[in-house]
Amino acid sequence: MASIIKANQLQDFGGNSILTSDGAGNLTTQKINYPAFEAHLSSSQSLTDATTTKVQFNTEIFDTDNAYDNSTNYRFTPQVAGKYFVYADVDADPLATAGLVSVSLYIYKNGSEFRTHELNFNNNYARRVSAAISCVIDMNGSSDYLEIFVYVNDTSGNPQLNATPTLNNLFGAYRIGS
């Protein structure tokens, strides 16, 4: 014999709604995977050749808790402790007919390198490349912050992050648990 429990709302000890149902099987959850954000470059960003540079993701696609600074520091500072899935993608372009020698993409936590993805083309230069990185990072919920840096070495000395098409350069994160 099976048991059936019927409810349209599940609450925590504080009386806060965790899960609700509309009676037709459609569920609404509260604050799962929050805080979360995603941002992109609104225009191409010029880089100094063979120099590690902070990527200025200046246009928010969404920011659930106003935890991403898209105008000054270009960093994510969640105020909720937990584990976060973090991702970034950049489109490195050497311009004209130049070639890419190497591209490195970095996730920095609190001003220090945390994770690196490196592409080295040696003498087989690439014309343009998309570099992506992702990982899970523990955040303390009070002062930890994340930033994205890039290093591009090319044969012309004038690399850039190409913002066309619009969503080729992204930075985002969301909480996956405590």
Commentary on this structure:
Strand 1 (9-11) and strand 2 (17-21) form a beta hairpin. This protein has strands spanning 9-11, 17-21, 27-29, 36-40, 45-46, 52-54, 59-63, 68-69, 75-76, 82-93, 100-109, 112-120, 129-139, 146-154, 160-161, 170-177. It is mostly beta strands. Strands 4, 5, 7, 10, 13, 15 and 16 form a seven-stranded antiparallel β-sheet that branches. Strands 6-14-11-12 form a four-stranded antiparallel β-sheet, with no helix packed on it. The mean pLDDT is 91.
Q: How do you describe this structure in short?
A:
It is built from no helices and 16 strands.
Q: Tell me, what's the shape?
A: elongated
Content-based structural category? mainly beta
CATH T-level fold name: Jelly Rolls
Low-pLDDT parts are: none
CATH class: Mainly Beta
Topology:
Elements (H helix, E strand, L loop, with lengths): L8 E3 L5 E5 L5 E3 L6 E5 L4 E2 L5 E3 L4 E5 L4 E2 L5 E2 L5 E12 L6 E10 L2 E9 L8 E11 L6 E9 L5 E2 L8 E8 L1
Antiparallel strand pairs: 1-2, 2-3, 4-7, 4-16, 5-15, 6-14, 8-9, 10-13, 10-15, 10-16, 11-12, 11-14
